[in-house]
Amino acid sequence: MRSLIQEMIHYRNGLDSSEECSPEKIAEFEGRYRAILRKAEEEYEYIPADDYYKEGYNLYLRMEQYMENHLLFLYDNRILYVKPTREQ
Questions:
Q1: Are 17 and 77 in contact (CB under 8 A)?
Q2: Are 73 and 11 in contact (CB under 8 A)?
Q3: DSSP calls for 10-52
Q4: In terms of CB atoms within 10 Å, which end of the chain has fewer, N or C?
Q5: In whole angstroms, how large is the CA radius of gyration of the chain?
């Protein structure tokens, strides 16, 4: 997930301030984001979230819940990407 977000930020920063992100590229990024979330969901089906896996499971839930917010900077060039404070 980290490398995907870095790639999205790098792509967005590489565009001119007036240039919009390509809808095809956004769709690709969203698909990869969802694929990572599906993989996490599958893994947590087999390994229940106990005390050892609690942080990873909670991160998965937050990433799923706030996906639109995390990707908003791709849709609106006025929004700068800021790393979520909790994950720093």
A1: yes
A2: no
A3: HHHHTS-TTPPPPHHHHHHHHHHHHHHHHHHHHHHHHS---TT
A4: C
A5: 15
